[in-house]
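Final report, results section. Input specification for complex C-07:
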Amino acid sequence: MAETIILEIARYSPERDTEPHFQSFEVPVHKEWVVLDALNHIKDTADGTLTYRWSCRMGICGSCGMMVNGEPKLTCATFLTDYAQKGSNIRVEPLRYFPVVRDLVTELSDFLAKLKKVKPWLIHPNQPPLSQGEFLQTPTQLERYKQFSMCINCTLCYAACPVVGLDPTFVGPAALALAQRYNMDSRDQGAGERIEELAHPDGIWGCTFVGECTRVCPKHVDPAGAIQQYKLTAVLEWLKSFVMPRGEETKHGSGETGND
Amino acid sequence: MDISSHDVLLVGGGGAGLRAAIAAAEVNPKLSIAVVSKVYPMRSHTVSAEGGAAGVAKPDDSLDEHAYDTISGGDWMSDQDAVEEFVKEAPQELLQLERWGCPWNREPDGHIAVRAFGGMKKRRTWFAADKTGFHMLHTLFQTTLKYDPITRYDEWFVTKLLVDDGRVQGVVAIELMSGKIQAITAKAVILCTGGCGRIFPFTTNANIKNGDGMALAYRAGAPLKDMEFLQYHPTGLPFTGILITEAARAEGGYMLNKDGYRYLQDYNLGTPEAKPVLRSMELGPRDRLSQAFVKEDQKGRTIQTPYGSIVHLDLRHLGEKLIDAKLPFVRELCLKYQNVDPVKEVIPVRPVVHYMMGGVSTDIEGATPLAGLFAAGEVACVSINGANRLGSNSLPECLVFGARAGQAAAHYASQQPSPNGKTMALANDERQRLESQFLNKTGGRERIATIRNEMQSAVEKSAGIYREQSLLMEGAAKLRELQERYGDINLDDHSHTFNTELESALELGFMLDVAESIVQCALHRTESRGAHQRTDYPGRDDEKFLAHSLNYRNPDGLSRIEYKPVTITRWPPGERVYGQQTSKQAQEH
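Structure output:
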């Protein structure tokens, strides 16, 4: 294996450049080093202007997503040796389909707005007082939504989704999986409210079930599956709205607390 | 210069900050609340917490037992009035989080499940698999989205507290996206910026943990308390420092030396049993386990690697099913970052800097001695953790004291006049400082990374697991030198858009101040207690040091240390006993 490897890094500064360009840096290959370590090495020793986000270096904060040789990756979990063994350079670019702020930093405010749009909080009006204890939830009920609660908001799935590329108004995989995380939670009664927000073309129906979102997810969330489930829920809610006025539906097992 | 105004301003958007923001909004929905964070809130380091959150939940447990475990675990340095409030409110806060949707693990009948944890005599640690902090943070963040009075300043970096007329009246911050330097005024400011692990070379802490809030408070005149008490977690992965949660031992993992021997039995931590015994062996407190590692290393019974000596954490006997159900993140981290499968192989581990027991001195309501300034979470020292924090007490601490600080700040802000005109002049001075010392400066000769590396090795060498006077004095001198050289720092990056090099330079300045505080407090405490072990003063000295260190910054930039007695309510100082004798001792209390 080579002792060094070339990183070709997309550079763009709005104060200096009219368009992005690539700059190459040679870095040592250590077997423990990930792409993020190489970026830090460059910033510390060669070029302090190199700009990217990172924080936890353990794949849970979701900050360091980038395109690595065309694939959306968490750079803290992408080892140099995987590329060095193939003898290839490593091309690092900002996540696709997002506006670029500078170098490898993307603009996230649109993503944050989409997250908020799905009302990602537990909706359960008229909760009993805390003194009544917890809502009961069996391990089976927990299992039903658990995987959708594992999203770290790294936005890799947006960079992988061709629909996001074509239609920037599409709510997108992570936000829809998050909506489904609450819809499937036995303690939640907000599915109806969320459907009103999402059951239109830029909500769920935009998804053409390509499945790229699920393939690239570093946390094994299945946004594609969530969206398909959601389409079914939307149809059921729509049908239900004919037989039951909004607000009266109840969900089996919810509303029950521990001290009953 | 632009200015915006709020009633309550949070610096930091992790577990404590978001809990405080919600609490303030609930006290008075008319208040305007700002959360200013250098990262998007869901990136905050609470996200990395793994094992769980302690709160009495089951009939066999009691608040007094949780209090006693916490106080003895902290080697009697905890303020017992604070601990009593903490253990009382922790279950309520964890329950509140359940009501907001946190996916706590459950018993088959649907009730909350609890697990064992180090130094705890009863099972009382609530958990969401081994991603408890992640789930708590995302639940809190998502819940804040429904509160309209909360305005977020995402990716804004606070450089200074605005203090005039003896009270804090806001902050100066840089909007990273644009480079704009702006005053954000407020009637009350709550620091929730977390810890400072990045001062050390080998830490579980994220890149953003630079002691920002500690330095901001210290520079503004508020004292730092008990900064010599810094926790090494016994099980970090070598090279990366990634944490392997204590839950791995609570579920039954063994600590083995190079001969495959459960060496903790040689360090007064009990005798080995096949199944985990509470407050015994692998479930002893973190300070004692990390200290045992050093002794074992000195005896030549650890394994040498390019990244330092290691021992092994063995989970193989737990089986794949339990590991996947209760410790899935441990397996994921080991596979992805260490190329080891804990189902089939032992995990290499070594002690790693993890948590700061000390911090900005606050009372039980989260108020600092500086009017208008509050603090909660790891940045603060209330003190509940004393000389050694027990695992799974820090997450509920964020909630309990985050909520209290949020409420107290909201009440305080409701009675304060708007910030006065002088704050603008102060903010302009700060902008000029940032421009002349960093952005517009040329010709500096020092690189950030060089000073940072030298600081990290100096602090590790002088203020590591074991300390002594001559090394601490060397460390203190080295840090003085680095402070001088910091003034000659050079930036490659002079642009305004997302200038992360400027941010790193400012963080380094914060870390140098906090590092000096740690070394000074460690130098002055001539006794051994909890996580502060002096080889030249091996005994605990209650006569002289049953007292908190309060570290103030003098106008000349040097530090001054005063002492304040520990508050004892019902548990007079005793001997810390772990191992099988524990149950006898606990009964006597």
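The longest strand of chain B covers residues 181-191. Chain B has three domains: 3-231+355-424, 232-354, 426-536. This concludes the modelling results for the funded period.
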